Amino acid sequence: MENTAMNFSQLLRPNLQAFHRRHLLQFSLALPFASGAPKASSSSSETPKAFGTAKRCILLWLDGGPSHLEMWDPKQDVPIEVRGPFSSIPTSVPGTHFSEHLERCATIADRMTIIRSMTSPLGEHGLANQYALTGYLPSPNLIYPSLGSIAAYQSQVSSQNRNQSQTNAPTVLPQSRLPSYIGIPEPRTGLGAGFLGSNSEPFWIGSDPAQPSFQIRDLSPPSDFARNRITRRRKMLEELRKFDHSDNTSLNAAFELVEDIQAKQAFELQPETQKTRERYGPRTFGQSCLLARRLIEHDVRFVSVIQPGWDTHENLSVSLRDGYSGAKVGVGLIPTFDQATSALIEDLQERGLLEETLVIAMGEFGRTPKLNTRGGRDHWPRVYSVMLCGGGLPQGLVFGQSDRIGEQPSSNPVTPADLIHTILIRLGIDPASVLSTPDARPIPINQHGKPIDALLT
Amino acid sequence: MIQIKSPTHSQPHSATTLAIRYSILLLIFSLPIFQTHCHTLAQSVTPTPTNSQAPSFQLDILPTLTQAGCNSGACHGAAAGRGHFFLSLWGSNPTADYQQIVLAHQSRRINFSSPADSLLLAKPTGRIAHEGSELFDPQSSQAQLLEQWIAHGAPQGPPVQVTNLTIESQQVSPTTFLLSTFATLQDGQQFDVTDRTKWEVDPNGPIRIENSPNPINTAQANTNSPIRVSLEQPGRHVLVARFGAAFQAIALVSPYDSTTNSPPTDNNNAATNPVDRWINLGLEKANLTHAPTVDERTWLRRVTLDLTGKLPSLEDITRFESIPPETRLDSTIDHLLNSNDFNSYWTFQLARWLALRPLPNDQASTTAYESFLRDLMQQRRSWKYLAQELIQSTGPSDTNGAVNFARLTGDPRAHAEAVSRFFIGARLQCANCHNHPLDQWTQDDYHGLAAILAGIDRGKNVRYTPSVRVTNLRTNEPAIPRIPGVRDLPPHTDDKSVRENFQALSDWVLGIESVLGIESVLGIESVLGIESVLGIESLPHSTTLPSPNHPPFARAITNRLWASMMGRGLIDPIDDLRKTNPPSHPELFDALTQIFIQADYHPEPVLRAIVSSQTYRRESYRIRANPKVDPSFYAVRIDKPLPPEVLYDAIQNAILNSDPNPNSSNTLPIQERSTSALTWLDPTIPSESLDILGRCKRSVPCDTSSANMGLSQQLHWINGPVVNKPLSDPNAFFHQAIAKGESNREILQQAYLRAFTRPIPTDQSDHWLTQIPTDTSDRKHWFEDWFWTLLSTSEFLLN
Q1: What is the pLDDT of residue A172?
Q2: Parallel, antiparallel, or unpaired for β A181-184 and A302-307?
Q3: CA-nearest residue of chain A to B713?
Q4: Nearest C-alpha neighbor of A195 from the set A2, A439, A25
Q5: In chain A, count of helices (H) and strands (E)?
Q6: How far is CA B415 from CA B412, B419, B599, in A?
């Protein structure tokens, strides 16, 4: 489609509602939670115990391809051009080492699952992040939905089903007005809804939580607006629709959010103490993680936090450790990540949220086993690592191995399709259930992945 | 198995010498090349092979590997190979493949003394561990063919070129088709190759191949029977066939199960308008009826927005009503096509298609580029001139604006991608690292185009220079300048040779001269007097232009014009013209392209043909939602969301009587005050509203992009300034009408004309009249809120 297409009105797309209803039907048949009990699935070996243990999910998306060798899978007794500039440190899991700059994460490794045998054939950012985030090899004909959009779609459908089934129930719990999928801070490709359409797109915060003036724009009416005018507009729109049945603009989600003062507080950071804010680190990524925790507390289903800049083709000690050349204290990508991620995991645990919240840290691929001549590492999809924590996953597990120099998996290779398959089970989504494209093609949520049994026990 | 006549077919596996190749070529060209071939001939010209003949490397072995997927991009066809076994993608480079299969590593993949034990057989049959799993049975015809070939000494055979692959289809039931494939060689010989064709079918899609392809004929006579394909869903479905490196796509249409079937009714226009003719034919094939025609006012709003990017003003509506009904539509189209609004809208469209954006710290050049496009449209110069100037211009960038097309690209490869996107409508970038898997483009095409474009110095004073080289990543040698898919050009030695190559490129995109295969390393075309000659050097490449042979630029622009009017390209997406993505209506695409060419590359006649059709006047999806019908049949008008800039202007024009008061304290920044968003060609002119509405920043092209927003825009629409600011402006029409003492009924009437171009129905004005407060301040606020709701409807937001 010619862009410039005003994306707003995509939401108003006529076929959406009819389409959505049809979707809904298929989805509700396919989704086990709709009927309350896990559906037996022949394709996967999920147990009722593992299914749906993660009610919510935070994806820390390390955009550009983080180096497995400088993070979760350091190599020691290897030549310097493989080992790289950093050394490794022991973690709270005996025998498992992380890079020296993941010092805080190392102390909580016993709560994490690390996969060291991720493997994919795609070494180009755009293609690889589609594979990593959707579990489907990219197709020129169809854009598949990303994990967050699938989760958002599922919770929209299930809440509608719940409403339908409870119309006669005496009490209906108030639904969250917050979007079910929120992205922090700015839009990135690959994290969208694909063929599921704009209702399942993430709501992007669009501003930097680390700024003192941080707020989400347009969340409230202009100050000189009497509150009843918003209500009147909403009512008028409904009246107008009685005359023109073909109209199907839907501003309801926005109206409800605007009118829900409590829900909007989830987007504010001022209520947090100075101590908490400092714990996550002062930078955008740290404060974004803090905002993610607040949103999770308000029962948002899926939050993606982007940390850009991991495409370290040159001088990786500056970008990964120092942050700028000559820095005395490292403020590069890894220290920033280490502080924010460890704070997030510990904070979630202290608040009793970690058990039902899955935290994932990953990028689209790893980096070449050998340093290049510019002191960097290039794209390397044949093996890389992913960190998962919480949501009922095993604690202190290192799954799969890379070979001696981190060139390819030496045991238990895991494809992005396998990983997405496994995460879907944890999120309570049957990977075999079927979605429908706008032209009514049935597409399984996950097709080529196999469950990783070790992560589902 | 295919045999071709050649004195060297039993030549053992030695590298063919150039001398031998010469003789082969001469032999091939002495065959009756102009002989007319049709498919019925095909079977009879196929020689009956016997066991004594070796299978052909290029026509039997490589296609078998393609069919099994050995040389696909995910396996050994990857640029990095697999397991140190490197094949060219789909067998596009037979010489290199022969080297890999037969000669590399002291022929370790071939066992001449015991052919069945060759690695080439042991791996795909699963006798030795194979990461790519077992691909065929040891007893299968594929295995037998490979074995037989090795038993004959694994000969390389003569070089042959498949010049065309055709698919023959026969619809035996509404949902079932019989398909056969035929390969045509450079000498005109044609073979049925159905048995070794690879059919690419999306396993999630609705196409099912019912009978597996025949076993490959090894010793028997050529008795290929067609494959049987069924479509599990109605509509148009594309299937791609590969035979070795050659490929072809076919669109199969299975009818919808329509209960209210009646043939298209507006055939009157079909005789004269190619749009209606071909669209109606497509509807008939698919058993679809089309939506009824919209009323004239809806049409007026539609066509005014599509041709000028503006809502019809109150004056436009009055003028429209004053024209006699029988000439009303034609006269309106003429009026719009000749208007200044047309000029400024299509200047904006060109700026967007070209991804015009500012050069850092160089406002003068940006301004010059904008002026170049403005002047082009104001003077209504041919878009042929546009193409020539953008490709060939040199000179100072602040006075000769067209040179900034090249400057914005930065380097030769980016320049090649920009040229292919705008002038060819193709995504050439895949061919940077490997031959395009879905198209005819090769790495030599990509790097060859970049090699031409390397001949320009992108400094402030753009000039030709022969000194810059790009490397062909396939050969690691300096790339040879090349017209993609057509012919090599002389290397850049001096400014003159560069200029000539730029001229040749510009001529090719415009089809100014026939450039089909004039060059040949052998130079024998003059002897034989034929145009389409295949030099040895071009053997690995396809020499066919996108079929049919309309110039690339004419096709690319025609498709864009259609998409601007109709909501989707005849080829969709619009920057993805390729052989495996056929047009939804090929004949219509040809006819419209022909109109564009005959109009000397002026867009107006094409646009006129489209908007004067009945097809253009159909009711929209909004009214007649039927999401199961593929929109590319155009049974129903496809609603297009207004582009951000058009929407921005539409809001202003619907609300305000004149430009907002510049002295008002709450007005927008200077750029947003007095002028239309469509005149801001530079996408970095600050406007938060436009950004939120989804304005393309053009740092990457926005021809295709996914809708990635929703709630943000909704919130901005409700709470932000984009609608609320103009509503509270004293120039808002209802504020002025209230001041002038107009009645509520009059204001309601005007509101509908402004927003929807149509009068308000009486029942609706009666309904609203009871609600309007009498207090002046309350009354103003009521109209602000009510008009806001009109702008929030799909009738306003979509076209």
Answers
A1: 34
A2: parallel
A3: A8
A4: A439
A5: 15, 16
A6: 5, 6, 28
Burial-class residue B572 by CB neighbours within 10 Å (0-12, 13-18, 19+).
buried
Q: Is the pTM higher than 0.80?
A: no
User: B264-314, pLDDT tens digit by residue?
Assistant: 555 566 667 999 999 999 999 888 888 899 999 999 999 999 999 999 999
**Angle value at C-alpha A388, between A385 and A391, nearest 5 degrees:** 165
| Spatial distance between the Cα atoms of B387 and B393, rounded to a whole number of angstroms | 10
- Residue B582: band (very low, low, confident or very high) from pLDDT cuts 50, 70, 90: confident
Whether residues B703 and A442 touch (CB distance < 8 A) is answered with no
Residue A348: partners with Cβ closer than 8 Å, 6 or more residues away: A293, A296, A354, A357, A359, A390
| DSSP-based three-state secondary structure for B172 | strand
Q: Is A43 helix (H, G, I), strand (E, B) or coil?
A: coil
**Exposed / middle / buried, residue B84 (Cβ in 10 Å: 0-12, 13-18, 19+):** exposed
The three-class DSSP label of residue B641 is strand
Report which secondary-structure segment, H or E, holds B754: helix B744-756
Q: Which residues contact B129 (CB under 8 A, 6 or more apart)?
A: none
Query: Nearest 5°: phi and psi at A84?
Result: 85, -175
∠ Cα B210 B214 B220 (to 5°): 160
Instruction: In whole angstroms, give the CA distance from residue B258 to residue B285.
Output: 12
Hey, are the CB atoms on B704 and A7 less than 8 Å from each other?
no
Contact present, B21 and B57 (Cβ < 8 Å): no
ipTM: 0.74
- Mean pLDDT, all residues of chain A: 85
> Beta partners for A434?
A444
B789 vs A contacts (CB less than 8 Å): 233, 236-237, 240
The B residues from 151 to 190 touching A (CB cutoff 8 Å) are none
* Chain A closest-CA separation from residue B702 CA (Å): 6
DSSP lists the bridge partners of residue B250 as: B239
User: What value, to the nearest 5°, has the Cα angle with vertex B797 and ends B792 and B799?
Assistant: 155
Cα–Cα distance, B344 to B339 (Å, whole number): 9
Residue pair B130/B124 in contact (Cβ under 8 Å)? The answer is yes
C-beta atoms of A243 and B767 within 8 A: yes
- In whole angstroms, give the CA distance from residue B581 to residue B595: 22
**Contacts of residue B659, Cβ cutoff 8 Å, sequence gap at least 6:** B673, B674, B675, B731
Q: How many residues does chain B have?
A: 799
Q: Is B657:B736 a contact under the CB 8 Å cutoff? A: yes
Q: How far apart are CA B310 and CA B653, in angstroms?
A: 8
Q: B436 and chain A: CB distance < 8 Å anywhere?
A: no
Phi-psi region of B428 (alpha: psi -120 to 50; beta: other; left: phi over 0): alpha
B192 has a chain A CB within 8 A of its CB: no
Q: Where are the beta strands (DSSP E) in B210-274?
A: 227-231, 235-243, 246-254
Give the Å distances, CA to CA, from B279 to A59, B339, B633.
47, 29, 7
Q: In Å, what is the CA distance from A62 to each residue of A65, A122, A182, A188, A333?
A: 7, 17, 16, 11, 9
Q: Test A251 with B792 for CB contact under 8 angstroms.
A: yes
Residues with Cβ < 8 Å from A168, sequence gap 6 or more? none
Report the pLDDT value the prediction gives residue B433, as an integer from 0 to 100.
66
Residues A419, A425, A431, A434, CA torsion sign: negative
Rounded-to-integer distance, Cα B65 and Cα B88, Å: 11
Is the N-terminal amide bond of A185 cis, ω within 30° of 0?
A: yes
According to DSSP, the residues that pair with B178 across neighbouring strands are B170, B228
CB B580 within 8 A of CB B238: yes
Asked whether the predicted pLDDT for residue B452 surpasses 90, the reply is: yes
Contact B711/A203, CB-based, under 8 Å?
yes
